[in-house]
Fold each of these.
Amino acid sequence: IWTTTPWTVPANQALNVHPEFNYALVDTGERLLVLAEELVESCLARFELSGEVIATTRGEALELIEFRHPFYDRVSPVYLADYVESEEGSTGIVHSAPAYGVDDFVTCRAHGMDFSEIKSPVQSNGVYADDLPFFGGQMIWKANPQIVAKLREVGALLAHKAITHSYMHCWRHKSPVIYRATAQWFVGMDVTGTDSRTLRERALEGIEATHFTPAWGQARLQAMIANRPDWCISRQRNWGVPIPFFLHKATGELHPRTVELMEEAAKRVELEGIDAWFRLDPVELLGDEAAEYDKVTDTLDVWFDSGTTHRHVLRGSHSHGHAEGPRADLYLEGSDQHRGWFHSSLLTGCAIDGHPPYRGLLTHGFTVDAQGRKMSKSMGNVVAPQEVMDKLGADILRLWVASTDYSGEMAVSDEILKRTADVYRRIRNTARFLLSNLNGFDPARDSVAPGEMLALDQWVVDRAAQLQTRIEKAFEEYRFLDVYQQVHTFCSRELGGFYLDVIKDRQYTTQADSLARRSCQTALYHVVEALSRWVAPILSFTAEEIYEHIPGRRQESVLLETYYEGLATLAPDAEMGREFWEQVLQVKQAVNKCLEEARNAKTIKGSLAAEVTLYVDETLHATLAKLGDELRFVMLTSEVHLAPLSASEQAEGQNAEVTELEGLKVAVMASSHPKCERCWHHREDVGSHAGHEDLCGRCIGNLPEGDGEIRRYA
């Protein structure tokens, strides 16, 4: 046999061979050796021996053959084990010490070895028991060379070599540790309960009824439960929650009044603290019986502690009286908790109530730096949350969390936080613009009914309604990244990139109480009401600030609100419905690109200094013509002409640019008309009105004494 742990040889109680390996009986002249057939040559070379194979057999034929211990007077059997390997350096046969190896323990127990038969000479301090022949009282690491010497002395050592290999160490102290079989308390996974189901069956059924985010967590937890052994819930530590049992010295049985005694112990702990049990003299509870019982000093596994929190929380201030017993809607923790808190909570919940204590599980990854490295003080890559909050504010940190795909590792760095702050400013500045344009607006007095609002205003409210539906669903499914992306896109594309630019003319040039302006303000009011609630779960402080500045009656806090219910949707058959405005937006984006090129070429100074001719096919013409003269307000130019696509080839003095949008060419030229100093549009009638030589006719009509401007669409 071969081993990398000589200190376990005194506890050897079996040999393991692989049932499917071929084994050879080798005659070396001095002795007979049994080796895995494929390893004979390498083993003989390592032993510096020569030999002849005189017989072979399958490993399964060696089962239960007995062998003698090399230096103790006892015999042990050969057991079959699939984990035996034929790697370089091995012999194909391994020794089994069930007290010091999990595989060894499981194999020996599977072959009927009783707990009482397992030899465990190593004490809790890593020292052999004094009564162990040859090595009693020695530290196991110091005994290693002496055990090798003893094997050599009895003629049982064929080879001895120092190697470097992987070995388990304490994660905190970096010192080697060992497995050691001891008497413990267990929760049986396959013991049938009162409902004729085992705990394992209850847990697996509970997993099927649980919603997992991400979905792959279900298979992971299922595999752990299906394959796990009984749950060891006891520990030998000087701190922790005690296991308040008394065991009969002769029989090992629990005291018949165990439940009553546990309650008495609990009362003492409540009054005196957790050490009350450890200070307790058994005579205080058992009287004359104390001499017959041992007080258990083991403590509970900390995962049993955390795994039973539901028993107290969900039956305390958060109980809801569900028919199947109180359950949490969601447990959320890091992905390592499938093996920890999620796992222990599942088992205790199923043991107590027959089902998990939760309806859903959410797991998230761990925080790493921009290069994907674990954060470490020694590496200097730690991003401290408190420092981020002090520098950027808590909402930036919250937005970073929402902007990250938590199903994997979550990268954070100063650069990433800077980009997050940029997005935050976009959302905040959008809200500021919305609020600033509600000055003087009283929703109870000035709101315009949905059907009377201008077409563009109806569209933006409809867009907000569609977005709110998606946001509600995303929040329900814990897809915070989707919420972040959709709110950002709405603020930057639909609002910042289109709607807010278009309405500035209406807001700043039409009469204060005109339908055109009040319609716009109504839309802004609806949007900011909804926006404050969309971002409240993420940007809690900013949402509160926005909410406090929205006109109209308020609740005490936005966090007491539900989703905004004032968002009207466009009718499916509306003449200027969703498809109409989507097409207009595509044209607008194409025109913007052409205007930008003209600005870069110094053809125009700004978009309002331009006149645009749109050469369009019949489909686009039918769409854009509906806006009439108001098309120029949508395109943010002083004039827009529509012409057939075929006319672009004959246009004099114009260079029509082909766009990415099928059926559209765009020609941009500088307006030859003077600029109105009020609206900045270049119009032919500027200077033709006495007393208002620097204004266009539209602006004169929009002065307080004027008749006002009629807008229907934009």
Amino acid sequence: MPIKEIIKAKAYELGFSDIGFANFEVLDYEIEKYKEWLANKYNASMEYLERNVDKRYDISLLLDNAKTVIVTATNYFQEKQYSNDDKKGKIARYALGDDYHTVIKNLQKELINQIKQYYPKANFLNYIDTGPILERQWAVRSGVGWQGKNGNVISKKIGSWFFIGIIITDIEFEPGKRMRDYCGTCTKCIEECPTDAIVSPKVVDANKCISYWTIEAKPDLKIPDEITEANPNWMFGCDICQEVCPWNKKHEQAIILKDFLARNNENEIDLKEILNMTKEDYAIRFKNSAIKRAKLESLQRNANSILKKKIK
């Protein structure tokens, strides 16, 4: 069996849903689109996205003599019905279980160790949302999926409910075949976004995005009234543009890795619990959870925002 096929088999054995390979190239077209996005201030207050643009463009600045970008896709979908209980805040599916940064980085480390058995002198970098990398663009180049109009990468196998992991190596592998765009004329995600955050196909303005305001926006930033009024009780993240996607409805699959199953089978949190939470409570409640991306003060701001809307 060719080594590339052995690597794929090991990836599936570890729990990855898919794996793709892309040859190293500088991202000329993609970086121009990225710079245009930044120029429009669509990154809102996420200034870190403005740094290391040169490395996002040329990953050989991260790993000398980079030859291949290996892309892993890990399904996190689980069928969860969200209530319309005004006393509860919804949590995006990706954050219901253990922190994906830790889980996937460890799995990719295992995969790297397997590859090293065949290439003991090879070099690797292991990333999962932890470096200056255009992950979605590499996922497209690797053949894992195409970029949907909501900006997410969509896989023919599992829809868009997956984490993207990146392994950069100086081993040269045969690249995967790019997948064509299957969105066609569908604009469901654009039409259904309650805050009109998808300003054009594949372009999201974070200033209008519920996920940005409930995760990335710093605690001292007030959520705009128009976002609050349009938000159907999402307290951390938002899944609407994925929930309405016809491709997702057709191809979503049950989760494989138990690490990502909802803790305590919960996909919502009582808003009063958040408001009464101490820093010690927060540290215990969200230990090894992606929810800790938002500080306690941010979660409390989010909870107040939802409750304030209901009081009016």
